[in-house]
Structure formats: structure tokens, C-alpha cells
């Protein structure tokens, strides 16, 4: 039986130790913020994945090369660097909740417009503009919840927010499987983009029910209109070691996201093109991968509070690199083994992200927390975004499976970056 009741410490003070203690500790306002951030990131994932899941049909409709299809993902991630960095500054200046609503609205509108694109060039532009909102949502949502959370529970609380990525990913796979099963591919990919209107409903909830944490409200109120407001220059100053922190945090984000987006962008095409799976078969393989991802987010959140932020990231960076190499070297015809390895692959490549939200939030003070997390996470996402494009061009001669090995290189970079960052487990936000 699971013990979900408070325990008593040596001083006689009750301490909530149940498996849902992290959620109860948020309080009513924090729980509403949690719902808003969870929904925002889940739908962010949904709107991102409609492109990879529709990529084969899009390439066929417009007659694209693998390099051109890879560029669609790269431009999304490159522009997301701008969106994420700007959203971080906005979060420090106008508040977390207002910035969150702006980012969600942006990625929803341009995802829908992608489904109306008459040609490749227009689709490329709309997808780039979708990246503005896509880039900003995670940093803002993670900070919003982190500021409601105690140091004891911050790792797993923000990791549960991160797990909504797997929920959105899974929903996108389910919808794409149904759409492509019953509609002609030339129409199906457009319908898939049009379903990206769903986040508009979330914006209504966020604006009506969610408020910034007191620590952010007080700091933003003092800084608004003054020199203390969030800025990019502030996160590079030498005082307090912020410049060094920004450098190594950026390198860490580059490595992790380069590995992740390489795999998430090209895996559907690899399964269909080189492994010869049908749309339904691919959906089944991805379902196991996504189940592993969801379990990985939750497990990584627990471990990041137990082992520490740095150890958790290092552990799963190494395991992710090993899984990528194993997954892409499975012999032809061994599709059963491909299925079995899908779960640990999804588990490891997602567990590494579990500590990111809490780690980056703890590396920066409240005055520049949005600017710091928005810049490091998203500008490095743009650099990591060139991994999928490189894979796209190399796939013409190496095959998608062979080119995917470059994703493992990113995880090696992440491990090296950890050497320049402090451990922040137990740090209270100030």
C-alpha cells in the first residue's frame, strides 16, 4: 500500500511525504499555474510534431528533397531561438502569465496557417513564425511553476510539466494515424496542421485563472520601467559568475537538444522509409517510444531531486547516446528488436530533460530568470537544430539510419558542458 499521509519529523513538525506531496505543496494558485503550464507545453509538443508526422506526405506533395524537408524543422528551431529569448525578457518585464498567453497564441495561429500553405516557400515562412511561439512557451511555463515550488520538490514538479511533452507527442501520433488512415495524404497533412487550433482554448483558461507567484510579482513590479528589468546583457555580466553560467548552460542545451531533435525529426521517416513500416505500424512503434518518454520524464524528475541536477543529466546523456547507436544499427528484418528498444530509447532521451527546468531556474536570480532560461535553452536549440538538417543532407548518401548516429555526438557535448556548471539541488529561488 502506498503511504500518502504526512510523516512527523524529529522536531514534531508534520512533513508531507506521499507520492503527491509535490502537487499539494503548490497550493491552490500554484496548482492552477501547473495546469496552465502542463497544457501549454503538451500542446506545444502537439503543434511541433504535426510536421515530422506529416513530413513524408508533405515531401511527396511538394516534391521535396530530404535536405528541404530537414530545413522545415531547422527553420522552426532556429526562429524558436528568437522567440524563446524574447519571451524570456518579456516574462521578466510584463510577467510570466502574460508572456505564456502570448507564446501559446502565436504557435497556435501559425500552425493552423501552415495547413493553408499553397507552396513550399510559404510553408517554410509559416513554420518559421510558428517557431516564435514554440520557442517561448517552455521557458516561461517552467519558470512560472518553479517559482511556486519549494526546493525539495522542484525537480519532480517541473519534470511532470516536462512530461506533458510526451502527452502532446502521443496525441499527435494518435491523430496523425487516424487522419492518414482515412484521408488522402495530400489532404491529411493539411488537416493535421489545422488541428493545431486546440491551444486557443488554453489561452482562455490561463488568462482567467493563472497568476504569477509572489516572488515574481514583487520583483517585476519593482523593475518595470526601470534598469532592473530583464535583459540579455545582464546574463553575460561577470559579477556573480553569470557570464560563465550562461556560456556553459548554453553549451549543455546545445548538446542535449541536438541529439533529441535529430532523433525526433527523422525517426518517423526512418521507420517508414528504411524499415518499410506502414503508417499504422509506425504509429505502434512510436507509441512504445512515447510511453518510454513519459516514464522517463517522471523517473528523471524523481532522480534529479535524489541524485542532483548534474548527475541526472550526465547519466541519461550517456545512456541516450548508447540507445541511439543501438537503435540505428539493428539488422534488417529484426523489427521485433526495434520494437523492444523503442521504450528504453524514449525513456533515456526524455529523462535527461527532467532536470532542465529546475536546473536553469536555479542558476539565475529572479530578476533575470526569464532572460537567462529563455536565452540558454532556446538559442542553443537553434544551434542544435542544424543537426536535423545535417542528417537530411547526409541521408542521401548514408541513409537516414546511418546519419542519425550524429545525434549521439550531441549527448557527448552535454556531458562536457556539465563540468563548468555548479550543482543547484536544494537551492531556494531568490
Automatic annotation (TrEMBL):
Residue ranges annotated for the Major facilitator superfamily (MFS) profile domain, each copy included: 33-425
Mind telling me which residue stretches traverse the membrane in this protein? 70-90, 97-120, 126-146, 158-181, 187-206, 245-263, 283-300, 312-330, 336-360, 381-398, 404-421
Q: Name one GO molecular function term.
A: carboxylic acid transmembrane transporter activity
**One GO cellular component term:** plasma membrane
The answer to keyword Membrane applying to this record is: yes
Keyword Transmembrane assigned? yes
Q: What is its main location?
A: membrane
InterPro entries the UniProt entry points to: MFS (IPR011701), MFS_dom (IPR020846), MFS_trans_sf (IPR036259), Sugar_transporter_CS (IPR005829)
Alphabetical keyword list:
Membrane, Transmembrane, Transmembrane helix
Where, per UniProt, does this protein localize?
Answer: Cell membrane
Among Gene3D superfamilies, the record links this protein to:
MFS general substrate transporter like domains (1.20.1250.20)
Annotated membrane topology: Multi-pass membrane protein
**Protein's name in the database:** MFS family permease
Native species: Allostreptomyces psammosilenae
Amino acid at each position: 500500500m502506498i503511504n500518502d499521509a504526512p510523516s512527523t519529523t524529529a522536531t514534531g513538525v508534520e512533513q508531507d511525504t506521499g507520492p503527491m506531496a509535490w502537487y499539494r505543496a503548490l497550493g491552490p494558485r500554484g496548482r492552477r499555474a501547473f495546469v496552465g503550464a502542463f497544457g501549454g507545453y503538451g500542446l506545444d509538443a502537439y503543434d511541433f510534431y504535426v510536421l515530422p508526422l506529416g513530413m513524408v506526405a508533405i515531401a511527396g506533395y511538394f516534391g521535396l528533397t530530404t535536405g528541404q524537408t530537414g530545413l522545415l524543422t531547422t527553420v522552426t528551431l532556429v526562429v524558436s531561438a528568437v522567440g524563446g529569448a524574447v519571451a524570456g525578457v518579456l516574462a521578466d518585464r510584463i510577467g510570466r502569465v502574460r508572456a505564456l498567453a502570448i507564446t501559446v497564441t502565436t504557435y497556435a495561429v501559425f500552425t493552423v496557417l501552415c495547413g493553408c500553405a499553397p507552396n513550399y516557400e510559404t510553408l517554410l515562412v509559416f513554420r518559421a513564425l510558428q517557431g516564435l511561439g514554440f520557442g517561448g512557451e517552455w521557458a516561461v511555463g517552467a519558470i512560472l511553476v518553479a517559482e511556486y515550488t519549494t526546493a525539495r520538490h522542484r525537480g519532480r514538479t517541473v519534470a511532470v510539466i516536462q512530461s506533458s511533452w510526451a502527452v502532446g507527442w502521443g496525441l499527435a501520433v494518435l491523430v496523425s494515424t487516424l487522419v492518414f488512415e482515412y484521408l488522402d495524404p495530400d489532404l491529411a497533412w493539411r488537416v493535421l496542421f489545422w488541428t493545431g487550433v486546440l491551444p486557443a482554448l488554453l489561452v482562455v483558461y490561463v488568462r482567467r485563472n493563472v497568476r504569477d507567484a509572489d516572488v515574481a510579482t514583487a520583483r517585476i513590479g519593482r523593475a518595470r520601467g526601470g534598469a532592473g528589468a530583464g535583459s540579455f546583457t545582464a546574463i553575460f555580466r561577470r559579477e556573480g559568475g553569470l557570464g560563465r553560467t550562461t556560456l556553459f548552460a548554453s553549451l549543455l542545451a546545445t548538446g542535449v537538444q541536438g541529439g533529441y531533435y535529430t532523433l525526433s525529426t527523422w525517426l518517423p521517416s526512418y521507420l517508414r522509409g528504411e524499415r518499410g513500416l506502414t503508417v499504422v505500424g509506425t504509429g505502434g512503434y512510436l507509441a512504445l517510444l512515447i510511453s518510454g518518454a513519459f516514464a522517463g520524464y517522471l523517473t528523471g524528475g524523481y532522480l534529479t531531486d535524489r541524485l542532483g541536477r548534474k548527475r541526472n543529466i550526465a547519466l541519461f546523456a550517456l545512456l541516450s547516446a548508447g540507445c541511439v547507436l543501438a537503435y540505428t544499427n539493428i539488422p534488417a528484418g529484426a523489427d521485433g528488436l526495434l520494437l523492444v528498444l523503442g521504450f528504453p530509447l524514449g525513456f533515456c532521451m526524455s529523462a535527461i530533460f527532467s532536470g532542465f527546468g529546475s536546473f536553469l531556474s536555479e542558476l539565475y536570480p529572479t530578476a533575470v530568470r526569464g532572460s537567462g532560461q529563455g536565452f540558454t535553452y532556446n538559442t542553443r536549440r537553434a544551434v542544435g537544430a542544424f543537426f536535423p538538417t545535417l542528417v537530411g543532407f547526409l541521408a542521401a548518401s548514408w541513409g537516414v539510419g546511418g546519419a542519425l548516429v550524429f545525434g549521439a555526438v550531441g549527448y557527448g557535448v552535454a556531458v562536457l558542458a556539465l563540468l563548468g556548471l555548479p550543482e543547484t539541488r536544494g537551492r531556494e529561488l531568490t
